[in-house]
Amino acid sequence: MKRLLFTGFLFLGIIVFIQTPVVGQPPLPDLVSPEVHPDKTVTFRLRLPDAEEVKIYTQFTEGEHALTGDTSGVWSVTLGPAEPDIYPYAFIVDGVRIMDPNNRLYFPNEHFKHSLVEIPADTPQVHSVQEVPHGVVSYRYYSSETLDTTRPLVIYTPPGYEQNPSKKYPVLYLIHGMTDTEETWFKVGRANFILDNLIARGEAEPMIIVMPYANTYSYDGTTADRGEVLQTALFTRDMVRSIIPFVEENYRTLPDKEHRAIAGFSLGGRHTLATGLSHPGLFDWVCAYAPAVWPEGFEADFENLYADPALLNELKLLSVSCGKEDGLYKSAQEFTKALEMRSIDYQTFFPSGGHTWMNCKKFLAESASKLFQE
Amino acid sequence: MKRLLFTGFLFLGIIVFIQTPVVGQPPLPDLVSPEVHPDKTVTFRLRLPDAEEVKIYTQFTEGEHALTGDTSGVWSVTLGPAEPDIYPYAFIVDGVRIMDPNNRLYFPNEHFKHSLVEIPADTPQVHSVQEVPHGVVSYRYYSSETLDTTRPLVIYTPPGYEQNPSKKYPVLYLIHGMTDTEETWFKVGRANFILDNLIARGEAEPMIIVMPYANTYSYDGTTADRGEVLQTALFTRDMVRSIIPFVEENYRTLPDKEHRAIAGFSLGGRHTLATGLSHPGLFDWVCAYAPAVWPEGFEADFENLYADPALLNELKLLSVSCGKEDGLYKSAQEFTKALEMRSIDYQTFFPSGGHTWMNCKKFLAESASKLFQE
After folding, report:
1. Which is nearest to B44 in space by CA: B123, B98, B122?
2. What was the pLDDT predicted at A231?
3. Domain of A338?
4. pTM
5. By CA distance, what is B183's nearest residue in A?
6. Are B113 and A99 in contact (CB < 8 Å)?
7. Is the Cβ pair B178, A28 closer than 8 Å?
8. What is the ipTM of this complex?
């Protein structure tokens, strides 16, 4: 009884604590959003009593959808069913896209703010968290000579890396898209879980994955020179002079071109081709995912591709991936034609889908299974 | 000239790319927000043509502040000057707090969505990124027997950890507050940079810091039992049965109570006291930061504190930190009185300030300099 009384007091205390704005924050979460149903539909909810209209944008539906408000100020809508995958979405309030306040899964980006919803499949997908040995994702900081500042790197080491202190590993340098950050391949692309699963199945070589921050403007977001977005030359210089040396000094790598790969999405695909094809002594594996290249720029962008095509045929893999509904699909096809005209070997992977991170996961899984194979 | 022409085509291509909604996202960032000025005032900007009113909440000002809209739909306000520190803030649109879309620094939380702005000091602060050796922050996944799922851990290893494969380290278990996540001590509390700086100055022992996910409801945010927030018993069980064994199996730790510390903020301070004081054989160092405890609950919460006070005097450190303007300051004082009545040794650190992450950084820096000292 005495115990019960104390418990009563305790809960009174908690209620006072929760209601008191000691941390300057709204009251505790009382909504579940998103709620994924067994039939693969999803209910999204947002408490927003002051709004006159709330809409939602998702990457598993077309266009925008209105939410319906109830008398308590909670807006909701049920959408789908959706193909099992991980989808970005955002509520739209007064024309601005906002994250779902009740969802911890966010899309790291310097411009838009999306949340993520995972629709699980009946059997786990290549990006699903499974009961397999997990690698480690590390946040590192290196001193960039080119950019004269301390910059972040996210690095995946495969399962077994710590337990085998004499083993050396190949390295994939994996680059994000425009306005993404060094976290996007980890938090949205699930590079770690994809490799954990492929390695567990024996379908990929254990490898280190280095995810640099490819935007060369200051990463605190306060510098003004963001207008110049395609800073490929600067990024390439930073990669060659600082990132690769940092990685090879701090990790047990196989430091030769046979064991170095570079891949990237969108603007990162452009960086991949620019860095990879202009440094044939550095990388033997070059994988462009929906690269931001245009036929008019091929010659200026890839001078040595024209100067010495034979050099590029020494690569072990030059691959171009793109979704067939991607706005850059036509450019990707034109690029492969330009390669073909010069008798340069390449491979393609053109699944369905658009310029999305759902496709990025497919691109990575597809090329990871080819990298560093004899 | 030919080169120039190609470059011209290239930029045309870029513009088309940027304007084409290939990724279903708004056009490129064209605003700088936040912009920190040399006089330590800050200008915040948001493009929101459809809004009738936009306000901002910051933790360096009182109350909310209206932004002024211009004819192009850009809202802005300049606030401050502010004391150098890292402050959470959010725009308020239709009553909901939203992150700043143009700012990459976010506050990981399961309920509110705040951005962060750093006001640099003239000389670097303890949390500033400095040119010192940096430790590594790793995201790990462990199998929780108690919660029957795979759960995340964020782990800091100090500079030199990889280079000294025979050295073993003490461990601080550091717990976040209510609705925070395993990332909050890293991304908001800057635990890594604080320790990097203290270690470089010789003011803290090199230590491993383990930042668990302390909310025992499913971490995908889709389970419904979030109403029960104080799941201290469940968390304690997971800590003792799964987290500590995982850390000691995977890291070179000194696995005894002299080299294990526990600390936490707010609800994490409550977990700290509950776990630390009820396991005197596990931890010799117990640091509560603005703990969510109330005088009425002391007896029920900390039975052994009353049963055997002498046991607690074997601790090397029992400390209570709290800001003097914190809503929990009175409770913190009452708690120390309860300790005093039972002749239990303790230390306090009561700086100015509220229930904030600005104070969390001070609390950590203060206690990290005491931990594991002879």
Report:
1. B98
2. 76
3. 136-221+228-368
4. 0.90
5. A104
6. yes
7. yes
8. 0.88
